[in-house]
From TrEMBL:
Protein's recorded name: UDP-glucose 4-epimerase
Stored InterPro entries: Epimerase_deHydtase, NAD(P)-bd_dom_sf, UDP_G4E
Gene Ontology biological process: galactose metabolic process
NCBIfam families recorded: galE (TIGR01179)
Length: 341
């Protein structure tokens, strides 16, 4: 099976590729415009095309040259706050880019599509934990771009027979066991890598965006899920598509949530760094609580979380430290520009 991994040089895509490489039956082609991805994360010897999915002509050349059997689509702009400030850029990148990809798949008769969706499609949930069929009402453009693609996929299956799986990630966290790859966006907007930047002296303090939410300590609660577990879900999803030939969507969460304060306190405890924090106004577009149940992924995909021991967010930091992953990798990044954390 030849898999075209769009956005394969980015955070989740690069971890997916490590998992695919450990299996015998997959041939991999990476497509990435390297706007956020890191060329240093691409394993030697893999086919790589530096292409933007919105460049239709080049996209067609990639399909014609490699003739993939399946596409996994990780390319997207992902900042909630930025999407509120510049929504058109988000619709352009996330929706139009995916439309071009689907049109090209249809032209080249590629049947299987795995899509990186998000918890942000749910908006302010009425019931926690969110079930796989909870109602979707995004409260920011980022979430709406992803929900729009989910709708487009439904109609595309109907019209062109493209079979798809939407994986709705909750908060990806952690790094690869090798410590070679991890989370590193520029600009970084995510809580855990920003906290680690404070530990490493790259940032003076962490901002807490709002402490007046209706939560146990007033700060937002999120469901943090290990990036390698997200990666394995993609492979299970592709196996499912090939086996069942049926489209489906799945929540990928752990069923437990941690507040911004709890994340910062966990990092303080593990790193023994004071990590100064300053309360700022709420960030635009943030729902107070996002926690998912993943019953469908467990039952239908047979997905189990290897990092289920991350019962407490502290374990994420312990994990990052013990596995030589994030903390040293941030330092390494200063020396080797392409090392990602
Ligand atoms: N957050 C924060 N300070 C930061 C970055 C994030 O307080 O510097 C909060 C953010 O408001 C949200 C939570 O941490 O409530 C997780 O945000 P992140 O950007 O990591 O992921 P998101 O939930 O937006 O996908």
């Amino acid at each position: 099976m030849k898999v075209l991994v769009c956005g394969g040089a980015g955070y989740i895509g690069s971890h997916l590729i490590r998992e695919l490489l450990s299996l015998p039956n997959y041939e991999i082609v990476i497509l990435d415009n390297l706007s956020q991805g890191h060329s240093g994360s691409i394993p030697a010897g893999l086919a790589f095309e530096k292409v933007d999915v919105r460049d239709k002509q080049k996209l067609e050349q990639v399909f014609s040259k490699h003739q993939p059997d399946a596409v996994m689509h990780f390319c997207a702009a992902i900042s909630v706050e930025e999407s509120v400030v510049d929504p058109l850029r988000y619709y352009d990148n996330n929706v139009i880019g995916t439309i071009y990809l689907l049109q090209t798949m249809n032209k080249y008769k590629v049947k299987y599509f795995i899509f990186s969706s998000t918890a942000a499609i749910f908006g302010n949930p009425e019931i926690i934990p969110l079930t796989d069929d909870a109602s979707t009402k995004p409260i920011n453009p980022y979430g709406d771009t992803k929900l729009t693609v989910e709708k487009i996929l439904g109609w595309s299956e109907n019209a062109y027979g493209i079979k798809y799986v939407c994986l709705r990630y909750f908060n990806a966290c952690g790094a690869h066991e090798s410590g070679e790859i991890g989370e590193d966006h520029d600009p970084e907007t995510h809580l855990i890598p920003l906290v680690l930047q404070v530990v490493l002296g790259k940032r003076e303090h962490i901002k807490i965006y709002g402490n007046d939410y209706d939560t146990r300590d007033g700060t937002c609660i999120r469901d943090y899920i290990h990036v390698t577990d997200l990666a394995t879900a993609h492979i299970k999803a592709l196996e499912y598509l090939v086996r069942e030939n049926k489209s489906q969507h799945f929540n990928l969460g752990s069923g437990e949530g941690y507040s911004v304060n709890e994340v910062i306190n966990a990092a303080r405890e593990v790193t023994e760094h004071p990590i100064p924090a300053i309360v700022h106004p709420r960030r635009k577009g943030d729902p107070p609580v996002l926690i998912a149940g993943s019953i469908r992924a467990e039952n239908i995909l047979g997905w189990t979380r290897k990092y289920d021991s991350i019962k407490k967010i502290k374990k994420v930091f312990v994990y990052l430290k013990i596995n030589n992953a994030a903390l040293p990798a941030i330092q390494a990044e200063i020396i080797h520009k392409n090392t990602i954390i």
